[in-house]
């Protein structure tokens, strides 16, 4: 179950996959801050709050290059491992429920490092 949430969070981080602008890598603090409002939705399901969706959109827009996306991926994997009650279905639906297109499937078998 955690793997699905990790994958969702990684997928959200990959939204800007095809944009490549130079910047410093995003920090884990920035990533976690942007998705922190989603914890209730990720653990209970239902409808994500507007602050959650705003964070997902903000995270998506802040990932400017591959370095950012990989850093965000690692941060999200680490963050998701600290929560045992995250729902994989809620995780897989978060981008679409927030109106964000990520362009990659949310799956435990996808290698997001490529």
Automatic annotation (TrEMBL):
Residues 28-112 form the Bifunctional inhibitor/plant lipid transfer protein/seed storage helical domain. Keywords: Lipid-binding, Signal, Transport. InterPro entries: Bifun_inhib/LTP/seed_sf, Bifunc_inhib/LTP/seed_store, Plant_nsLTP. Pfam families: Tryp_alpha_amyl. Residues 1-20 form the signal peptide. The keyword Transcription regulation does not apply. One of its GO terms (molecular function) is lipid binding. Gene3D superfamilies: Plant lipid-transfer and hydrophobic proteins. Transmembrane segments: none annotated. It comes from the Eukaryota. Plant non-specific lipid-transfer proteins transfer phospholipids as well as galactolipids across membranes. May play a role in wax or cutin deposition in the cell walls of expanding epidermal cells and certain secretory tissues. Belongs to the plant LTP family. This is Non-specific lipid-transfer protein. It comes from Forsythia ovata.
